[in-house]
Write a structure and sequence with these properties.
alpha/beta; about 35% helix; about 20% strand; about 220 residues; eight-stranded parallel β-sheet
Length: about 220
Protein backbone atom coordinates (compact mmCIF):
# COMPACT_ATOMS: atom_id res chain seq x y z
CA UNK A 1 0.00 0.00 0.00
CA UNK A 2 1.56 3.28 -1.12
CA UNK A 3 1.56 6.43 0.98
CA UNK A 4 -1.79 8.18 0.93
CA UNK A 5 -1.85 11.75 -0.34
CA UNK A 6 -3.18 14.43 2.01
CA UNK A 7 -5.26 17.24 0.53
CA UNK A 8 -6.10 19.92 3.12
CA UNK A 9 -9.44 21.55 2.38
CA UNK A 10 -9.24 25.32 2.55
CA UNK A 11 -12.93 25.55 3.48
CA UNK A 12 -11.77 24.99 7.07
CA UNK A 13 -8.98 27.57 6.94
CA UNK A 14 -9.08 31.16 8.22
CA UNK A 15 -9.90 33.13 5.07
CA UNK A 16 -8.52 36.34 6.56
CA UNK A 17 -5.12 34.64 6.66
CA UNK A 18 -5.48 32.21 3.77
CA UNK A 19 -2.03 32.77 2.25
CA UNK A 20 -0.42 31.98 5.62
CA UNK A 21 -2.60 28.89 6.05
CA UNK A 22 -1.60 27.60 2.62
CA UNK A 23 2.09 28.22 3.28
CA UNK A 24 1.81 26.31 6.57
CA UNK A 25 0.34 23.15 5.05
CA UNK A 26 2.71 23.28 2.10
CA UNK A 27 5.65 23.42 4.47
CA UNK A 28 4.01 20.64 6.50
CA UNK A 29 4.07 18.19 3.60
CA UNK A 30 0.60 18.41 2.06
CA UNK A 31 0.32 16.92 -1.42
CA UNK A 32 -2.61 18.88 -2.86
CA UNK A 33 -4.89 21.76 -1.93
CA UNK A 34 -8.59 20.93 -2.01
CA UNK A 35 -11.03 23.71 -2.89
CA UNK A 36 -14.75 23.10 -2.32
CA UNK A 37 -16.90 25.26 -4.58
CA UNK A 38 -20.54 25.39 -3.39
CA UNK A 39 -23.41 27.33 -4.91
CA UNK A 40 -26.28 27.11 -2.41
CA UNK A 41 -28.32 25.09 -4.92
CA UNK A 42 -26.72 21.70 -5.37
CA UNK A 43 -25.68 21.84 -1.72
CA UNK A 44 -27.10 23.98 1.12
CA UNK A 45 -24.07 26.22 1.47
CA UNK A 46 -22.18 28.90 -0.47
CA UNK A 47 -18.39 29.12 -0.42
CA UNK A 48 -16.46 30.77 -3.26
CA UNK A 49 -15.94 30.76 -7.00
CA UNK A 50 -13.23 31.19 -9.64
CA UNK A 51 -11.81 34.42 -8.17
CA UNK A 52 -10.72 32.68 -4.98
CA UNK A 53 -9.29 29.74 -6.95
CA UNK A 54 -7.33 32.23 -9.04
CA UNK A 55 -6.04 33.98 -5.92
CA UNK A 56 -4.95 30.68 -4.37
CA UNK A 57 -3.20 29.72 -7.60
CA UNK A 58 -1.07 32.87 -7.43
CA UNK A 59 0.26 31.95 -3.99
CA UNK A 60 0.24 28.15 -3.90
CA UNK A 61 2.95 25.75 -5.01
CA UNK A 62 0.81 22.63 -4.76
CA UNK A 63 -1.69 21.41 -7.39
CA UNK A 64 -5.24 22.70 -6.96
CA UNK A 65 -7.88 20.00 -6.56
CA UNK A 66 -11.15 21.83 -7.30
CA UNK A 67 -14.39 20.11 -6.31
CA UNK A 68 -17.49 21.60 -7.94
CA UNK A 69 -20.50 21.03 -5.70
CA UNK A 70 -22.69 23.10 -7.97
CA UNK A 71 -25.68 22.76 -10.26
CA UNK A 72 -24.97 22.77 -14.01
CA UNK A 73 -21.16 22.65 -13.65
CA UNK A 74 -20.69 22.60 -17.45
CA UNK A 75 -21.39 26.34 -17.48
CA UNK A 76 -18.34 27.02 -15.33
CA UNK A 77 -15.68 24.61 -16.53
CA UNK A 78 -13.99 27.30 -18.62
CA UNK A 79 -13.88 29.73 -15.70
CA UNK A 80 -12.16 27.22 -13.43
CA UNK A 81 -9.72 26.20 -16.15
CA UNK A 82 -8.78 29.85 -16.52
CA UNK A 83 -8.55 30.25 -12.73
CA UNK A 84 -5.86 27.59 -12.54
CA UNK A 85 -7.45 24.33 -11.42
CA UNK A 86 -5.27 21.26 -11.93
CA UNK A 87 -8.00 18.71 -11.18
CA UNK A 88 -11.67 19.52 -11.71
CA UNK A 89 -14.24 17.20 -10.15
CA UNK A 90 -17.95 17.32 -10.94
CA UNK A 91 -20.78 15.45 -9.24
CA UNK A 92 -22.32 12.60 -11.16
CA UNK A 93 -25.69 13.71 -9.77
CA UNK A 94 -25.33 17.24 -11.24
CA UNK A 95 -24.34 16.39 -14.81
CA UNK A 96 -26.67 15.32 -17.62
CA UNK A 97 -24.04 14.18 -20.14
CA UNK A 98 -21.17 13.01 -17.95
CA UNK A 99 -18.99 11.56 -20.70
CA UNK A 100 -19.09 14.85 -22.60
CA UNK A 101 -18.25 16.83 -19.46
CA UNK A 102 -15.31 14.60 -18.54
CA UNK A 103 -14.00 14.66 -22.10
CA UNK A 104 -14.20 18.45 -22.17
CA UNK A 105 -12.33 18.85 -18.87
CA UNK A 106 -9.54 16.54 -20.02
CA UNK A 107 -9.32 18.31 -23.39
CA UNK A 108 -8.35 21.45 -21.44
CA UNK A 109 -5.33 19.68 -19.98
CA UNK A 110 -6.84 19.07 -16.52
CA UNK A 111 -7.37 15.88 -14.58
CA UNK A 112 -11.09 15.08 -14.51
CA UNK A 113 -12.89 13.69 -11.49
CA UNK A 114 -16.34 12.33 -10.71
CA UNK A 115 -17.81 12.66 -7.22
CA UNK A 116 -20.45 10.39 -5.69
CA UNK A 117 -22.80 11.44 -2.91
CA UNK A 118 -23.28 8.93 -0.07
CA UNK A 119 -26.51 7.52 -1.52
CA UNK A 120 -25.24 7.25 -5.11
CA UNK A 121 -24.35 3.65 -6.06
CA UNK A 122 -20.93 2.74 -7.40
CA UNK A 123 -22.59 0.88 -10.28
CA UNK A 124 -23.30 4.22 -11.97
CA UNK A 125 -19.57 4.53 -12.68
CA UNK A 126 -19.54 1.46 -14.92
CA UNK A 127 -19.77 3.40 -18.18
CA UNK A 128 -17.29 6.15 -17.28
CA UNK A 129 -14.64 4.62 -15.01
CA UNK A 130 -12.06 4.21 -17.77
CA UNK A 131 -12.33 7.87 -18.74
CA UNK A 132 -11.80 9.52 -15.36
CA UNK A 133 -8.67 10.37 -13.42
CA UNK A 134 -10.28 10.60 -9.97
CA UNK A 135 -13.31 9.11 -8.25
CA UNK A 136 -14.24 11.18 -5.22
CA UNK A 137 -16.26 9.25 -2.64
CA UNK A 138 -18.17 11.58 -0.32
CA UNK A 139 -18.10 10.18 3.20
CA UNK A 140 -20.51 12.85 4.45
CA UNK A 141 -23.42 14.54 2.73
CA UNK A 142 -21.83 17.47 0.90
CA UNK A 143 -22.29 21.04 2.02
CA UNK A 144 -20.57 21.65 5.35
CA UNK A 145 -17.20 21.02 6.95
CA UNK A 146 -16.93 19.09 10.20
CA UNK A 147 -19.71 16.53 9.70
CA UNK A 148 -19.77 13.00 11.12
CA UNK A 149 -18.11 10.33 8.99
CA UNK A 150 -20.46 7.78 7.37
CA UNK A 151 -18.97 4.38 8.22
CA UNK A 152 -20.34 2.61 5.17
CA UNK A 153 -18.02 4.77 3.09
CA UNK A 154 -15.20 2.26 3.64
CA UNK A 155 -17.09 -0.49 1.79
CA UNK A 156 -17.96 1.99 -0.94
CA UNK A 157 -14.29 2.82 -1.46
CA UNK A 158 -13.54 -0.90 -1.63
CA UNK A 159 -16.25 -1.32 -4.27
CA UNK A 160 -14.75 1.49 -6.36
CA UNK A 161 -11.31 -0.10 -5.99
CA UNK A 162 -12.72 -3.39 -7.22
CA UNK A 163 -14.34 -1.74 -10.24
CA UNK A 164 -11.09 0.02 -11.16
CA UNK A 165 -9.18 -3.26 -10.93
CA UNK A 166 -11.72 -5.22 -12.98
CA UNK A 167 -11.71 -2.66 -15.76
CA UNK A 168 -7.99 -1.95 -15.73
CA UNK A 169 -8.74 1.73 -15.16
CA UNK A 170 -6.23 4.30 -13.92
CA UNK A 171 -8.45 6.39 -11.64
CA UNK A 172 -7.30 7.40 -8.18
CA UNK A 173 -9.80 7.21 -5.32
CA UNK A 174 -10.28 10.32 -3.23
CA UNK A 175 -12.28 10.47 0.00
CA UNK A 176 -13.84 13.59 1.44
CA UNK A 177 -15.79 14.13 4.64
CA UNK A 178 -15.12 13.39 8.29
CA UNK A 179 -11.53 12.36 7.62
CA UNK A 180 -9.41 12.46 10.78
CA UNK A 181 -6.87 10.18 12.53
CA UNK A 182 -9.68 7.81 13.58
CA UNK A 183 -11.20 7.35 10.10
CA UNK A 184 -8.32 7.68 7.64
CA UNK A 185 -6.84 4.23 8.35
CA UNK A 186 -9.95 2.35 7.27
CA UNK A 187 -10.22 4.42 4.13
CA UNK A 188 -6.59 3.79 3.24
CA UNK A 189 -6.99 0.05 3.78
CA UNK A 190 -10.12 0.07 1.62
CA UNK A 191 -8.12 1.54 -1.25
CA UNK A 192 -8.19 5.33 -1.01
CA UNK A 193 -5.30 7.19 -2.64
CA UNK A 194 -6.14 10.75 -1.57
CA UNK A 195 -7.68 11.95 1.70
CA UNK A 196 -9.28 15.36 1.96
CA UNK A 197 -9.09 16.81 5.47
CA UNK A 198 -10.47 20.15 6.59
CA UNK A 199 -11.00 20.50 10.33
CA UNK A 200 -8.51 17.68 10.98
CA UNK A 201 -5.80 19.96 9.53
CA UNK A 202 -6.84 23.61 9.69
CA UNK A 203 -8.84 23.17 12.89
CA UNK A 204 -5.73 22.05 14.78
CA UNK A 205 -3.24 24.22 16.64
CA UNK A 206 -0.40 22.92 14.45
CA UNK A 207 -1.69 22.08 10.94
CA UNK A 208 1.70 20.79 9.81
CA UNK A 209 1.86 18.31 12.69
CA UNK A 210 -1.76 17.35 11.98
CA UNK A 211 -0.79 16.30 8.46
CA UNK A 212 1.87 13.99 9.84
CA UNK A 213 -0.60 12.52 12.34
CA UNK A 214 -2.96 11.73 9.48
CA UNK A 215 -0.19 9.99 7.55
CA UNK A 216 0.77 7.92 10.56
CA UNK A 217 -2.85 7.02 11.30
CA UNK A 218 -3.32 5.93 7.69
CA UNK A 219 -0.56 3.39 8.19
CA UNK A 220 0.97 4.46 4.87
CA UNK A 221 3.62 6.90 6.05
CA UNK A 222 6.88 6.61 4.10
Amino acid sequence: MSAIQIAPSIIAADFLHLADAIATVEAGGADLLHLDVMDGQFVPNITFGPLVVEAVKRHARLPLDVHLMIADPDRYVGAFVKAGADTLTVHLEAVTHLHRTITHIRSQGLRAGVALNPSTPVSLLEEIIEEVDVVLVMSVNPGFSGQTFIRRSESKVAAVRGLIARRGARAQIEVDGGIDPETIGGMARAGADIAVAGVAVFGQADPAAAIQRLRAAAGTAP
